[in-house]
Amino acid sequence: MTMPLTGPLLSVEDLVVEHRTPGRPVVRAVAGASLHVAAGEVVGLVGESGCGKSTLARAVCGLHGAASGRILVGGHPVTPLGLRRRDPALTGVQMVFQDPYSSLNPRRRVGAQIADGLRAAGDTAASPADLLERVGLPRAFAGRYPHEFSGGQRQRVAIARALAARPSLLIGDEPISALDASAQAQVARLMRDLAVESGAGLLFISHDLSVVRLIADRIAVMYLGKVVETGPTAEVWADPGHPYTRALLAAIPSPDGAGVLPAELPGDVPDPADPPSGCRFHPRCPLVMDVCREKEPGFGPVACWLHEPEPSSPS
Amino acid sequence: MRTESRPAALSIEGLRVSIGGHDVLHGVDLAIEAGRVHGLAGESGSGKTMTGLAVLGLLPHGSRASGRIAFGGRDLLEMPVRELNEVRGAKIAMVFQDPATSLHPMLTVERQLTEHMRHHLGVGRKEARERAAGLLAKVRIPGPEEALRRYPHQFSGGMRQRIAIAVALACEPEVLIADEPTTALDVTVQAGILRLLRGLCDDLGLAVLLVTHDLGVMSAVADEVSVMKDGLVVETGPRGQVLREPRHPYTRSLLDALPVPPGENSP
Ligand SMILES: Nc1ncnc2c1ncn2[C@@H]1O[C@H](COP(=O)(O)OP(=O)(O)OP(=O)(O)O)[C@@H](O)[C@H]1O
Ligand SMILES: Nc1ncnc2c1ncn2[C@@H]1O[C@H](COP(=O)(O)OP(=O)(O)O)[C@@H](O)[C@H]1O
Ligand code: SF4
Ligand SMILES: [Mg+2]
Ligand SMILES: [Mg+2]
């Protein structure tokens, strides 16, 4: 599906998403997060488990309603599913989940499931076997059921199925973490190549920074429901601004054979139902100042009082 | 720190495994010492997981294993099932990449942590509960007391893995087999888990077999490194040697395939 494009393909603006469970405090899993993905661009969304990455992705797919803020896909606002009709803004969005079991029907041959996507996209030229080949699987596998694949192969099938629908925005939520190790970088690269080749945008969610570094043009770092830093991947890597981003990068162990344990980030991941005041990172921040405890740094691209943009300086 | 003379806590000799008549391990040799982390790397499908499962007697149906797996002077492959049950989970524990494999979805975290403890260690309910909360704190679950009352699905994936590691450690095992235990975790949490594993090794003399594809993780915690390919160990040696001067071409190809060392140009 093609869409009229005005501005970015995906805009998430000040999004708030809440989980409500009876008898429990409201969990504000996404607490005012903003991010953008352009057509043909790969954005890596990283952050610790529980910081709200999946909740954000589900909201973008219309699987979860927003409490406030906006999500625009191709300029059209996304409204949650559950209504009778699929939101037209969502026809070009496909998601690949961490656990391919949750997106593949166990009782249907994978070829038939891929054919559904091709049909939805009105594609009569490609066959399911062609798509399997594109993700590096033998053509004959189209006749198999999901359980007849290894974990890594199943994830490739899920990717093939998502691509069959010709999405303009592909979202991968930890799409490689169930893969056998040696296949992770390979499949991540594959997703990048296939998305970019077709002019689609890719929002690639992962906790694995080394893979994100390989494939993302830009990265967005999320902490406790907020995007705290965004920037071109190489720049963020070379010069991380937010103390949390610095902590993340310092935690990556280096394969130099030296036996150095990676730096640990002190303190616990806070409860999103009861976030700290001011800057949400302040209880764990080595550079915390007085202002951090009181006022939230509500600006970008680095949401930290050490990086407050100067209003007078030209951008 | 190296204790050359210490006998192996677990010694795998000439382990062959076939599944449905198809050979998957062709004579694996591995020795794991108390107080040491032995890293196991290798291609997908090379037999790392099967090696771990063979030690625990958890190979899939229709598998045949031969060779020797020596633990505490006994051969685990020859051990009657009843005795093996006493060993596995208590003296030898395993953690998998997917925490769903290790955790029971219908039981509270407290029950999963305390049941084995009470059975194998014979501690009372109250002490078991205290130990359980202590273990959760050790693997950095926020609010351990409250967490004990919850079920696995009420935690994020990363937290579930931390709980699975706590369960594996509950009976103070002598040998821990960890199959990609941090692959699904955040680097910050991974750093904590690696420090935890290292500490357990150093302080309690735990012997760890750590299966990981991540050569960074390997470099951070492993004392010895073995590399598998096609059902065989093709290279074994001290961490520094294997990662810096690999002898086997396959190990070299693994190192060559690495992206630019992460963090290389970070401050
Ligand atoms: N249940 C099974 N039935 C038949 N063959 C199996 C089964 N499980 C694994 N195998 C085969 O045994 C071999 C070794 O598999 P194993 O799971 O030990 O690989 P691994 O080294 O752990 O790989 P990975 O890095 O992907 O986890 C592979 O050829 C695999 O296809
Ligand atoms: N269905 C749910 N009900 C209640 N709380 C939830 C639900 N899903 C997620 N949460 C909570 O919302 C927060 C963010 O979760 P999630 O979006 O899954 O994070 P991530 O994908 O970054 O690991 C966590 O505190 C998590 O426990
Ligand atoms: S705003 Fe303050 S506490 Fe927050 S990250 Fe910056 S320095 Fe640290
Ligand atoms: Mg998630
Ligand atoms: Mg395995």
TrEMBL record, chain A:
Biological process, per Gene Ontology: peptide transport; transmembrane transport
InterPro entries recorded: AAA+_ATPase, ABC_transp_ATP-bind, ABC_transporter-like_ATP-bd, ABC_transporter-like_CS, Oligopep_ABC_C, P-loop_NTPase
Coiled-coil regions, chain positions: none
CDD domains noted in UniProt: ABC_NikE_OppD_transporters
GO molecular function terms attached to this record: ATP binding; ATP hydrolysis activity
Keywords: ATP-binding, Nucleotide-binding, Transport
Highest taxon of the lineage: Bacteria
PANTHER family noted in UniProt: D,D-DIPEPTIDE TRANSPORT ATP-BINDING PROTEIN DDPF-RELATED, TRANSPORT ATP-BINDING PROTEIN
NCBIfam families linked: oligo_HPY
Protein name from the UniProt record: ABC transporter ATP-binding protein
UniProtKB/TrEMBL annotation, chain B:
Statement: the UniProt record of this protein carries the keyword ATP-binding: yes
SUPFAM superfamilies xref list: P-loop containing nucleoside triphosphate hydrolases
Gene Ontology CC annotations of this record: plasma membrane
Membrane topology summary: Peripheral membrane protein
Pfam families: ABC_tran (PF00005), oligo_HPY (PF08352)
Keywords: ATP-binding, Cell membrane, Membrane, Nucleotide-binding, Transport
Main subcellular location of this protein, as a coarse class: membrane
Record domain ABC transporter: where: 10-255
Source organism superkingdom: Bacteria
Family the UniProt entry places it in: Belongs to the ABC transporter superfamily.
Name of the featured protein: ABC transporter domain-containing protein
